[in-house]
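Researcher: Please translate sequence to structure tokens.
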Amino acid sequence: MKATREGYIEGLLEAGERDTRVVVVDGDVSRSTGTIAFKDRFPDRFFNLGIAEQNMAEYSAGLALAGFIPFYSTYAVFAAGRAWDQIRTSICNMNLNVRIGGAHGGTSVGPDGATHQALEDIAITRVLPNMTVLVPADANQTRQAVLASLDIDGPVYIRYGRNQVAELYNREESVVPGRGRLLRDGKNASIVAVGAMVSIALDAAGMLSKKGIEVSVVDMVSIKPLDIQLLQYLSDVTELIVTAEDHQIAGGLFGAVSEYMSENCPGRIIPVGINDRFGCSGTPDQVMKHCGLTAEAIVGKVEKAVKIR
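Model: Translation complete:
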């Protein structure tokens, strides 16, 4: 078990070693986000702008125009939400090479409560032209997402969390924009998950298998661009997809998958996610259970859909 935050800083340190253009812009939360390690290693390439996320976005745009590769990192709810206008106008509109580290995404920030739980960040970043959106499932994949971002032309949003999650990948398995991962193959239904919900989806698949229901499990680490070939494959095999995300149902993974499928390969798509509400205070596990982000919830949705079909 390891927090994806640890993978983010590991990737950031490696990126800093590989390319001297890599710099970090912080919002006075470097101990919380993990980027203090970058400050310790590369003090001349670390800029703390204080709690001023809109300034951070504009400052990062300026650094990108000057030829640097800035990683602008803070709590996801502020990185994506508070600075959305600046990201849209100054970063995405000019297709600048700014990388946004959305720390503590979803319910992983637990005890900090609803104000700090970013449950809308995927929706508001993926809607922006030129933006790549990556949501890794474990620490090793987060490290690879950071390294992969060095080769992406244009802005990138990388969502990572604070709570520990199961390690699913080895350190060398790469992340490729537009490519998901088929982790399990099944004929009765498919579960497409992102982030912390990937390991939970695998748990649900094991529970369903004991009941005679075999499901595919996909880690859709690249929400934008989507792996449309993989979605087509799932549609051809099962025609039933359950999405699982630690995010609002509206506009996130469910929205992205539904938009593509409705136009290209219609089938039944059922969401497991945050259903039009804010989070609450508690441990990450308590909040996830309270919000219905559990293996049991996925199992229930699959069982019901399979029976109806």
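Researcher: Any highlights?
Model: The two ends are 37 Å apart (CA to CA).
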